[in-house]
Amino acid sequence: xxxxxEISSVLEELKTSEEGLSSEEAEKRLEEYGKNELKExxxxxxxxxxxxxxxxxxxxxxIVASIVSALLGETIDSVVILFTVFLAGVLGFVQEYRAEKxxxxxxxxxxxxxxxxxxxxxxxxxxxxxxxxxIILLQTGDxxxxxxxxxxxFNLKVDESSLTGESVPVQKITDALPASxxxxxxxxxxxxxxxxxxxxxxxxxxxxxxxxxxxxxxxxLGTIERSRTPLQESxxxxxxxxxxxxxxxxxxxxxxxxxxGFPPLDMFLWGVxxxxxAIPEALPAVVTVGLGLGVRRMVKRHALVRKLPSVETLGATxxxxxxxxxxxxxxxxxxxKIYVNKQNLKVTGNGYNPxxxxxxxxxxxxxxxxxxxxLHLRTLLLGAALCNDSNLxxxxxxxxxxxxxxxxxxxxxxxxxxxxxxxxxxxxPRLAEIPFSSETKRMTTFNKLEDGPxxxxxxxxxxxxxxxxxxILASCTKILLxxxxxxxxxxxxxxxxxxxxxxxxxxxxxxxxxFRPLEEGFSPEKxxxxxxxxxxxxxxxxxxxxxxxxxxxxxxxxAAIKTCEEAGIKTVMITGDHKITAAAIxxxxxxxxxxxxxxxxxxxxxxxxxxxxxKVEKVSVYARVYPTHKLRVVEALKKKGYVVAMTGDGVNDAxxxxxxDMGIAMGITGTDVSKEASSMIxxxxxxASIVSAxxxxxxxxxxxxxFIAYGLTAHIGEVLIVLTAILxxxxxxxxxxxxxxxxxxxxxxxxxxxxxxxxxRGLMRQKPRDVEEGLITRREIAAGLGIGGLIxxxxxxVLVWALNSGFPIPKLxxxxxxxxxxxxxxxxxxxxxxxxSIFSLGLFTNKALVxxxxxxxxxxxxxxxxxxxxxxxxxxxxxxxxLGIITALASTTLISMEIVKYLNARKYY
Length: 909
Fold this sequence. Notes:
This protein is α+β, with helices and mostly antiparallel strands. 47% of the residues lie in helices and 17% in strands. Strands 10, 11, 12, 15, 16, 17, 18, 19, 20 and 21 form a ten-stranded mixed sheet that branches.
């Protein structure tokens, strides 16, 4: 494992030295270990991906129906059915074509070149040629090409946020660590895919390719199978139900007819007609298009869905597991508190924008603002800005920083007091420095005051220090207080220490600052050369104050989490940050409540599967975790029956994003790996957009259920009409091509228009739906039987009227044909909502449905009155009076449902 061993032991085991490997040895090891690259899993062929779109039982039934129709000579029926099947397959294929590229993107994140020592000399080589035992050199800005053990470092800090979620660059060390040290805390190791944020160092490569941390992630992604969505399961279940019902009905009619003396071939043809009536040919295409329209709406709400069936998964989501850094927080370290001159100050402002105020926290005054000219505040912030290697600059009206985020926060705070980078460099040039190290935990700079000494900085040369509070305090003998330099007493040290603890308890990263005017004739060069020990300079310092900073939560997140709570959705924070920081942020956001648990990655490792499953529902915060921990959390929640959404932006989130029912990646800060592993991408990186997406997902599923229920009534009505007419009058009231036309136009435009119906009132105050409920419940079946029975009754009235009037069979069929279409158009308005009256919703609040109904009616009239279409559909013209009677009879479909809604009216929300 190498992190728990001394450097000499590591070099010995890897059979190398600080002089590096020889060229001959490197070639030999490259053959043994292979190239430093990630292996791709076998790609799914385009043909296989396309064919996978036709696996559902419903699609299979439609294909069989098409073959049977073709064998019976019903060529038009066969072609139309196959066309709708093909259309549904193409739409699904287009959506999923680019879904599985996570491994390729992981490969692209590795560094193209690496600086190594070979044969005792530095040289650059392709990173793919690195092998264990190579000595690599690292410096600021480098992407680390392989996992390595640090053997030398000079203030080396590594940004590991993409791998561990840690929001602050990690200070690296060379010392051996205890064997029990968790992976996230192994500060003497660096990992492939992370980057050097500051300083430089040297390491010995310990793992390459699939053996690196990135390789482990690639392996996880390659073995995780994305689970089927609730909608896919529901459609299959519905298909099995429809298929079974169809076979039973067909068998019943055929057997009954044969025993009644009808010719077997005629009974088989009637059975086929019933099958065509029962099977919703257009359902897959309509559902796909409905989802597609929902996706377009979600894009406008900053949510991009990569797989269509995943849209409605949001509506069933019970738990959202969210990464903290950059998702719940701004990913911008910001100074929030200052302790100076025995006063607690609050610093206002957002992000890197250098605009803000300094306010007294305990002041009773109307204007608690502290002036930028305050001596104590200016001295503190001047030291913070000068003892600093970061810069603040503006690019295209956006403030940006370069350098370490923690130091950048100090620069931004100083800028709020009027200190600008360029001006500081001119007025207070740095002559020398003692750099930060993990051993000293402090940094000191020596700056010349060209404008002459001030009242406090009474020298032309001043040393400024910043670092860990305990280190800075130990070096101070004086304190800047009430405008004077005074002796630092034990009571004051105790008071400052209590302030440090109080700030730390607020999840703030605390830094102390001090300064010291240097005597005339002091030579910075002697410090740089080591002639004057650093300890001699960094003593007898004057304490100037404390600065507390953190990565603040996004302003809109708290409200979003509250909305999720009202919707019955639990939010869980999963982060690589420390436990105290994570808990404080979670408590502030409303995630962590009384009696909720917080677990660290190490604590999670100590729990077996049974123990963890007992606790998982009570845990709201996971801190100091690694990718395998995130994956374990998601899988444990899924085992408990929860529908889990996982948000994230880093490479470390990819396995959990893929394993979750709904993986949600960040579009701006998210890595390509996380995006490819996700089901949905937030284009604005805003957690609040998840709330909009959840609402849209719920509404999409509600609309899908409504237009399927609407279609169910039509199919039930058709089956009852055909069955009753055959059994009662030995007449086929609709021929197969008419039934197919009814299915195509009633399952076409109206359902698509229903799919854009706005959300019902209070949709986000409902609990998540039960994924076991399915698309069709007893409620939909009851409504389908009721309205379907009503449509059948209307048709039988027309049938009796036509027979009594002596109308020929083609006219009888044309009247029933038109009646069913008109009745379904009235029925379409019923299913805008299964709860609210059309008059409550407003007739024109869904104009798309009005246009769809009018278009469908016109198409039906064309079929009835256009000669060449009359031939194709075996129709005859109807008189205006006959058309008026049919329309009036069909309107009872809407009137009766309005009466039912009125009688059943109650408060749902």
